[in-house]
Design goal:
Blueprint (H helix, E strand, L loop, with lengths): L2 H4 L4 H22 L8 H22 L1 H6 L1 H18 L1 E3 L2 E7 L3 E3 L1 H23 L5 H23 L4 H17 L4 H24 L1 H8 L1 H11 L7 H12 L22 H34 L3 H26 L16 H21 L6
Antiparallel strand pairs: 1-2, 2-3
Helix pairs in contact: 2-3, 2-13, 3-15, 5-6, 5-7, 6-7, 6-8, 6-14, 6-15, 7-8, 8-14, 9-10, 10-11, 12-13, 13-14
Length: about 375
């Protein structure tokens, strides 16, 4: 197979990522001025981007067909890593989400589990559709139980770290991929009803009997719910300072590297607040347009794809990206709860960035397949 054809890159997808890289690295550098101690985050992010683009090339050389063939092995391996985290993970901010790798930094398996879960579900859905062209309700129910089992394992392990935000991403990915696959709507209605009743029960217990809530769910879960609900009254030091920085930016911002006040985690969770305070409404609008273009290009890629499995993979990736974009930006404005979700391709983080770059490689393979540069 011609290696040049394998490495053909769709510039309509790659160029936005290059712009994201420039925005991310420069904004992270600006955020470093707010920190008491600099850890050279911008330099590290630059290195991770270089590693990421090398990973993209590696994925394109290997091809999606081989990656999908070994998906179940990857699923098992990363679930094992999630389990080991509970015993050997490096505690950071009362959470065990990372392995400490000497000389490199921290490694977060849950970031990679997102893409592995997308690949695993796409294989499951396509296998089910090939086996049953017109499945009965019972056959569909059994399949959904199998999906629930596959999603529950990493969800439980990630929840115990604890990392509720990533668990929500797992569940959203699953919902969107099943919806795209054409599963009967009655299952979604039943799911929404069950989730709604469960949420009402949990919130009712939280608001009316907090002692019993702690006895049933534990102190850790109580604190997570308490943090999620802080956004409703716009309370919290981080949120108030972040919103002030965004509002003070005005139309054109304070200028590069001139964020007027400090707030926690400016290089990760609140990276958008740094960018907005630097470049104001005009810069933020330009970033919104770029994000929208990138998302629409991926949706168009799914429409163009002749492979159902590729459509499901893109659907899961787009669902994850759009959710994280809305969640990260929304929480800096106080319209959504603060969950620690980063802004894809822009926030600092080696594991998260590398996982996005692996996704980029998979997307470029699909694009090449659509254009018949690669024949499997």
């Amino acid at each position: 197979m011609d290696i040049k054809k394998r490495l053909h890159m769709d510039l309509s997808i790659v160029i936005p990522v290059v712009i994201f890289a420039i925005i991310g690295i420069t904004t992270i550098y600006s955020a470093e001025s707010l920190l008491l101690e600099t850890n050279h985050y911008a330099l590290k992010q630059t290195i991770w981007y270089i590693v990421g683009f090398l990973a993209v090339i590696g994925i394109m050389v290997v091809g999606n067909k081989i990656i999908l063939r070994y998906t179940w092995y990857l699923y098992g391996f990363f679930n094992l890593l999630l389990l080991l985290l509970l015993f050997f993970g490096e505690p950071i901010n009362n959470a065990r989400c990372w392995f400490e790798i000497p000389g490199i930094g921290v490694f977060q398996p849950s970031e990679f589990m997102k893409i592995i879960l997308i690949l695993t579900l796409s294989r499951m859905i396509r296998h089910f559709q090939k086996k049953y062209e017109s499945p009965t309700i019972l056959q569909e129910f059994i399949f959904l139980i199998q999906v629930l089992a596959v999603v529950s394992l990493p969800s439980i392990l990630t929840f115990l770290q604890p990392d509720t935000g990533v668990v929500l991403i797992y569940l959203l990915i699953t919902f969107i991929m099943l919806f795209i696959a054409g599963i009967r709507y009655r299952w979604f209605i039943m799911l929404f009803t069950f989730c709604g009743l469960s949420l009402l029960m949990v919130l009712g217990l939280y608001f009316f009997n907090q002692d019993l809530f702690i006895q049933v769910f534990g102190t850790s879960f109580f604190l997570r719910v308490d943090r999620l609900l802080d956004w409703s009254n716009k309370s919290g030091y981080q949120l108030q300072k972040g919103m002030t920085a965004i509002g003070a930016g005005g139309m054109t911002g304070y200028g590069y590297n001139a964020t007027p006040l400090y707030f926690p985690e400016p290089q990760t969770d609140f990276i958008f607040a740094v960018f907005s305070s630097n470049f104001g409404f005009v810069g933020s609008l330009a970033l919104f347009i770029l994000l929208l273009y990138f998302d629409m290009r991926l949706i168009l890629l799914a429409v163009e794809s002749k492979s159902l499995e590729s459509k499901y993979v893109i659907g899961g990736i787009v669902a994850m990206l759009i959710y994280q974009q809305f969640q990260n930006i929304g929480m800096t404005f106080g319209v959504l709860p603060i969950t620690g979700i980063t802004l894809p391709f822009i926030s600092y983080g080696g594991s998260s960035l590398l996982s996005y770059m692996l996704m980029l490689g998979i997307l470029l393979n699909i694009s090449n397949d659509n254009k018949k540069h690669i024949f499997y």
